[in-house]
Amino acid sequence: xxxxxxxxxxxxxxxxxxxxxxxxxxxxxxxxxxxxxxxxxxxxxxxxxxxxxxxxxxxxxxxxxxxxxxxxxxxxxxxxxxxxxxxxxxxxxxxxxxxxxxxxxxxxxxxxxxxxxxxxxxxxxxxxxxxxxxxxxxxxxxxxxxxxxxxxxxxxxxxxxxxxxxxxxxxxxxxxxxxxxxxxxxxxxxxxxxxxxxxxxxxxxxxxxxxxxxxxxxxxxxxxxxxxxxxxxxxxxxxxxxxxxxxxxxxxxxxxxxxxxxxxxxxxxxxxxxxxxxxxxxxxxxxxxxxxxxxxxxxxxxxxxxxxxxxxxxxxxxxxxxx
Amino acid sequence: xxxxxxxxxxxxxxxxxxxxxxxxxxxxxxxxxxxxxxxxxxxxxxxxxxxxxxxxxxxxxxxxxxxxxxxxxxxxxxxxxxxxxxxxxxxxxxxxxxxxxxxxxxxxxxxxxxxxxxxxxxxxxxxxxxxxxxxxxxxxxxxxxxxxxxxxxxxxxxxxxxxxxxxxxxxxxxxxxxxxxxxxxxxxxxxxxxxxxxxxxxxxxxxxxxxxxxxxxxxxxxxxxxxxxxxxxxxxxxxxxxxxxxxxxxxxxxxxxxxxxxxxxxxxxxxxxxxxxxxxxxxxxxxxxxxxxxxxxxxxxxxxxxxxxxxxxxxxxxxxxxxxxxxxxxxxxxxxxxxxxxxxxxx
Lengths: 323, 347
Hints:
The structure holds two protein chains of two kinds.
Chain A: E1 4-11, H1 17-26, E2 33-37, E3 49-52, E4 57-59, E5 68-70, H2 71-82, E6 89-93, H3 100-109, H4 111-116, E7 117-127, H5 131-137, H6 139-146, E8 150-154, H7 164-174, E9 180-182, H8 201-207, E10 228-236, H9 241-255, E11 259-267, E12 273-280, E13 283-291, E14 298-306, H10 310-319
Parallel strand pairs in A: 1-6, 1-7, 2-3, 2-6, 7-8, 8-9
Antiparallel strand pairs in A: 4-5, 10-14, 11-12, 11-14, 12-13
Helix pairs in contact in A: 5-6
Chain B: E1 9-10, E2 12-18, E3 23-28, E4 34-39, E5 44-48, E6 54-58, E7 65-70, E8 76-81, E9 86-90, E10 98-100, E11 107-112, E12 119-123, E13 126-130, E14 136-140, E15 149-152, E16 158-163, E17 166-171, E18 179-181, E19 187-192, E20 198-203, E21 208-212, E22 217-221, E23 231-233, E24 239-242, E25 247-252, E26 264-267, E27 273-278, E28 285-289, E29 293-297, E30 307-310, E31 315-320, E32 326-331, E33 335-340
Parallel strand pairs in B: 1-30
Antiparallel strand pairs in B: 2-33, 3-4, 4-5, 5-6, 7-8, 8-9, 9-10, 11-12, 12-13, 13-14, 15-16, 16-17, 17-18, 19-20, 20-21, 21-22, 23-24, 24-25, 25-26, 27-28, 28-29, 29-30, 31-32, 32-33
């Protein structure tokens, strides 16, 4: 049985999630789509199914934020998988205040969902007019951007054009990895938000071979350094796999709750292949990818999270280099 | 992994039937004359025990069915679904079912008390206590999370609920406070030993929790591969069979209990176990798995399965006939099989 792709739509209140949802549903794609909503918006349904959900977060292990999952999604998706009618795609629209972390972790931590579904991408909408206000006052707004694989900067018609680069810069500081698509009324080609493969390392590298391009990863200097930032590290050389394991393991153990997303391409001593990895909080997925070939062997790691200490991360990565 | 030996005999099929959707549960009428199949969507079907012909259809729940349970003595079937309704279907009447929607939200589980005086229905964080005419006695809750399962104590005076933060034991006597069996995790299934001494939960974290009331002891059993979604007690309260991987772990709860002991591991399936059923009066255990296989075991007596029944689709439900001589097996493709144990001559 093929694994069904799941897209998570997040965004602060009024950012246009329902508009995007309707655009996806109305596009003539011939797919059967199941929509799970925490807030009922006005959704046009035809062949599709809309299920309401009450957000219910629980910790699988006592007190560990990295083991929090969404009980409502486990139940609803569990039943959806049992129906004879199969769906080609599942869309989850979260509330404006939802923390995307537990939603994402649900797909990695629940046995049934892990085996039958795969998280394609977290798509975050931002309201161009109110983004600065939200970022200044609502921690959820920054977290939703931090977890995103794709960001839709919506309602750009409501701000003067010269403000757009500034807004993009503001988003980039939080999330240096996700493509940012400016849009009006959530108008965007659907291949920019669906089938992204945001959690599929091989896909990321095929479709965006330079997604970890260091020029995205400049160190931004601001007077008001936001709490949530991206830190990108690059260093040539080869890494000792044991030291790397130890460093990353310790980092996730101690800083897991503050690490939202992590992506990297690493050069492991003695391996002709590139080592790619991605993580969400304490969940880490790494594997050997295609050989380096003639490309220069280098290590690139991007962290998105809270209270990241660039210098400590840099030292950590360097400590893993083969002497 | 232990391979099923050549000595494994096939279960003999008596009949098969098709359901319109994924079978969630199989429930024999208490007299054994008919089998109710609860599909994920659509009408509930009552099949004749002798040949599997459809005797009757009961209206299902719009949005999807979730649960059903026969009254222990009266010809009444309670069901619940995603439409927030409890239905009470009467076998003696062709009238539409009596209906009650106590509140908003899925009716996840309905269970009659063993003495038939009450029906308990889980809806979100509440559990409603109803009389057989669906009048509400009162509601237990709110629980800290959605109630995932219910189990009546054999005395019909206490009701155990499973939810986030473990289990709660509610007393029908409103003057007795509920007992919280909090372990800060999430429980999915709950089962009371037939003698009422032990309460067991199957959990989202791959664990099983056991509360032994006479010994005032609680245990956490670890070592499971996946979440534990099926539990089954032997009728003598000695064995607790648990899913949570390709092997069924069977805990011996007799004597000093399972503390510090190793479970019997029944290994023959190649994919996760989905269903477990002990016979009502004997000690054979049926296990069904996502690989489509069903095995019948004699825990504690024989390490390998005695009987097997292979299908091409994941097993979703198992139910022994009240006379223990036949086993109903349902699979995800909507097929339903009634199989019998071999006769002595066939052994």
